Protein 1
Amino acid sequence: MPGNSFGQIFRVTTFGESHNVAVGVIIDGVPAGLELSESDVQKELNRRRPGVSEIVSPRAELDKVEILSGVFNGKTTGTPITMIVRNIAFEDEPYEIIKDLPRPGHADLTYWLKYGHVDYRGGGRASGRETVARVAAGAIAKKILKKFGIDILGHVIEVAGIGIDPEKVTFDAIRNADKNPIRCADSNVAEKMVQKIKRAKEEGDSVGGIVEVIALNCPAGLGDPVFDKLDADIAKALMSIGAVKGVEIGAGFRLAKMRGSEANDQFAIDPKTGKIITTTNNAGGILGGISNGMPIIARLVVKPTSSIALPQTTINLKTMKEAKIEVKGKHDPSICPRVVPVAEAMLALVLVDHMMRAGYVHLTKFEESSSLK
Ligand SMILES: Cc1cc2nc3c(=O)[nH]c(=O)nc-3n(C[C@H](O)[C@H](O)[C@H](O)COP(=O)(O)O)c2cc1C
């Protein structure tokens, strides 16, 4: 079965390849009456696009969104929303030279093995460019969540072995992480990360890292056990982003080293709200696949960028003989900062869908949605 759609009620289908006419998204399930303009979407796309700093790809992609359907007089109409971003700044030539040489670390070989006939230019459908569509859809999801006071944050917590302790940074510092090019909440550590990335780039190499995404003010009760548990849906959403090779929720892999007495989040009453809270958040806001009202926290491992200038060994698919390849072109020496808005978008898509499934968002008319209070 094709796998280009995501979500049950807020249903997103992305389309397009890196070097074709456009990439885009159709979203079915957005209720009528939500105020929406291209600038709402553009500001999120501007956070994802390359060419914005010296540590991301210098490709000059403007990524200007066009809303083709589903919005009339500044508001959604309840009909499918189609958004496209035209591909204007691509170069086919570097890919013609290596079209029979699958790039190590890329999806070239597996697409060729599975489909045979593949648009190999720029990674085609497997290109990071596909995430334009996710970020565009996520902008609408974020806008709906914001109406309920739900805030989605994201930042880079580790690059090339240089990291911060995410439990020691404030939510406000994370909100300001976009102010440095690596999107790390601690600007001193950010500088060290940038130096590591620059060094890798000079050496024709690349580095990986870890991105954290957080949802604040989510109501308790989101998630449908047993197969649509909230953590299971978040893991799938984040893992579907290119270059992501690991996902953890809350304390995640660190739980393996803890005792139960350390790992269990104990319950207490919040004196301000009278609601049940936990004194720690090792569960990352989710118990039994259902949100518990604490911040939802997920982390993603981003592998080092596959496209590197250093010589590597591959197979020539025409001759079936070993060959050497050096990947030319304008690539991100670390994908981490660009993954931040994509991961935020995927978390927003999961949460808006579950908010709809839980009955908070009216499925037809947005203004009849019920508030969290
Ligand atoms: C926003 C974004 C930008 C990316 N840019 C690049 C890039 O410039 N060069 C590259 O080799 N991979 C890039 N990737 C990663 C590849 O798309 C991905 O590694 C490849 O399709 C193989 O898939 P996998 O790593 O998930 O197995 C990017 C991914 C994302 C999400």
Protein 2
Amino acid sequence: MEKIYRDADVSIKPLEGKTVAVIGYGIQGKAQAANARDSKVKVIIGTRPPEESPSRAQAKADGFEAYSIAEATKRADVLLIELADPAQPPIYKAEIAPNLSPGKTLCFCHGFNVLYGVIQPPKSVNTVLFVPNAPGHFVRQKYLAGEGVYGCVAVDHDATGDAMAIALAVAKAVGSTRAGVVEMSFQHETEGDNFEEQILYGGAIQLMKMCFRVMVENGYPPSFAYAKAIRSLRSVIDVMDEVGIEEYISRRCSRTAEFAIRSRGPRVVNEEAIREIFRETERGEFARDWMQEWSLGMPTLHRLRRTAADSEMEKTGQAWRKDFGR
Ligand SMILES: NC(=O)c1ccc[n+]([C@@H]2O[C@H](COP(=O)([O-])OP(=O)(O)OC[C@H]3O[C@@H](n4cnc5c(N)ncnc54)[C@H](OP(=O)(O)O)[C@@H]3O)[C@@H](O)[C@H]2O)c1
């Protein structure tokens, strides 16, 4: 049975009289800091030194008190860890861990480093998670519109007896309980996220690329293949989200499309490969490969990026946006 929390179920009181430090002022950090401040929470920012990052100056320009990460950790009761995931372990070790004292709360925005033991907080602090299910600009945009972004909360370690209440108060301050927040585990948040990235993003992008490549190889004009491979999908995703996939297939697209979707779609998807990737993710193999890739300086990604940027599809896309609009 899913446990969903909404505004009426959650109090922001666990944050009253407390200082919340947002550590890392990037995509999520900026949005969550602004929303929490607008929810009347005392928010400060912790960033890398000004010579390494423009974030400190940006946070000050946005009206926040901004400090080094070590100083923000000392001043805060609750820390929202909004650093890029691979950057977290060395910064945690050097600046956060030495300045943690009993009763503080570490609130992560992705469970990866805790789940795989790369960061092991002391048992005297709460280790929780709050993740809004959208990029930062959308989290902010929805909040300003009086709405919120669906999210999740989890507790890995409850040192003070009210760790979940604190995680939920953070979710409320950021606006997510306006939509609904589901309780889950660090394991499911992390593995679910990694699974989705591999299957959905990886799979959908590969499908678009293959659709383009096969059409061009068979003599289709590249602009036409590009429009088919990306534009047509873009235009129907919102409709499916609004009315439901079945309504879209049965009533909002052509009968030819319905026949194509129902009869050929399953042939395109390799169900066994999806299940195998799920098992690999559960076994921690994706996490191991990613940590190794990062620690080696991302050689595989550099090579894959170079070849992808030169592809005919990318060049067609650039021309397409200029010639036919965004
Ligand atoms: N982006 C999303 O849509 C999204 C959605 C859900 C959850 N999350 C989670 O939110 C957390 C923050 O993600 P994000 O996307 O907001 O990260 P981000 O904007 O890419 O980076 C956040 C901050 O990390 C620091 N940073 C980035 N690269 C670094 C490097 N190479 N070395 C040292 N520090 C570095 C910078 O800190 P300074 O500000 O100090 O320069 C930066 O502002 C992650 O745990 C992520 O999984 C993100």
Protein 3
Amino acid sequence: MYASKVDPSATRRAIDGDAGLAGLDAAVRRVLPPALYHYLAGASDDEATHARNLRAFGDYAFLPKVLVDVSQRSLSASLFGVERNLPFGIAPMGFSRLIAPDGDIALARAATDAGIPFILSGASLTRMEEVRAAGATSWFQAYVPGEAGRIAALVDRVEAAGFDTLVITADTAVHPKHERAARHGFRSPVKPSLGLAWQGLSHPGWLRRVLLRDRLAALKFRFENMDAGQGPPVFSATLTRDIGRRDALSWHHVDAVRRRWKGKLVIKGIMTAEDAATAAQAGVDGIIVSNHGGRQLDCAASSLTALERIVERRPPLTLMYDGGIRRGADVLKTLKLGADFVFVGRPMLMAAAIGGQRGVADAIALLAQEIDIALALLGIGRLAGLARVELLRDRGASS
Ligand SMILES: Cc1cc2nc3c(=O)[nH]c(=O)nc-3n(C[C@H](O)[C@H](O)[C@H](O)COP(=O)(O)O)c2cc1C
């Protein structure tokens, strides 16, 4: 039983807060230079979609069952035929290595220890081969350019590195405007300036643990996994980041990847039942219902609303979810609404920024503990028992 391994006091120490995963926000704000904090915590434009993601869970409430023997509990969930200790994993996040000490490796190792999947981002700054060697993580998220030659070479590299699950992020045809991050000096690649230098100097913990680590090696960080070869540097006064013809990406390219990639293929960023059905027809093994944490289209519905619609015409593939999950009960509501598995973004990287690998382990343990408590209080011992409890659309729950 996973919950027995939970050490809530360590979690509290690491996250220095008392509000569950949402409490990480205030703690990480103190740790990170503002440009990085606002890039991590923020979303696009007015951040309305991100707010909708967070709020959506409040519109649902369970009717718990009582006087049920729940002394034997398990949080395990099956994903692509593999039994996982917990029903959640860690979503892909770019720039992790600049935000947290050895960020990609810390996330990979903590996920491996907890027996959950971690998806390495295509915008990561650690070579995928290195991350693969550091943990048992085997999911890679690609930012696939709409150019056939580049696709084949990237797919071959991912396969050679030993990943078995390829996630194509589909909701990034163009770069959105992250206005809050930009206001605080964040852009990609990062353009060195006096203002940013001051932000670094006034956050000595981050400076020491991330930037000065390995004798300023961080200043040479590059986008390592955008393509078959090395990408552009993160710090550059002149470069623009070449994201390829991402605006030309279409289902034809998904077909091309499907023909070449032998492992599990997942599309991330699906929001409609029609696209979910097309994915199933294209031979895709699973989708992640996601609006990119509100970081792309800022007038998109919440991911939870999209999930509900997709479930109405349930496609024959594995249905995963991300967006706004901050409590154990959020995980259970999402599973009850029809998802097979969920992913958590910001809180995990915030935990890494605060406490490194240990911080991520604490955040995972905290969420596991909350799921365990909610499960017991709902009167069910296993996730399969969710079929027997009622979830109501209860707008009063959020007021
Ligand atoms: C800092 C940051 C970087 C991200 N980078 C990527 C990325 O490289 N690829 C991707 O598919 N999604 C990326 N995302 C989106 C997440 O994978 C995920 O969809 C989102 O964070 C889920 O919402 P949540 O943060 O509310 O849990 C990023 C999110 C954040 C916060």
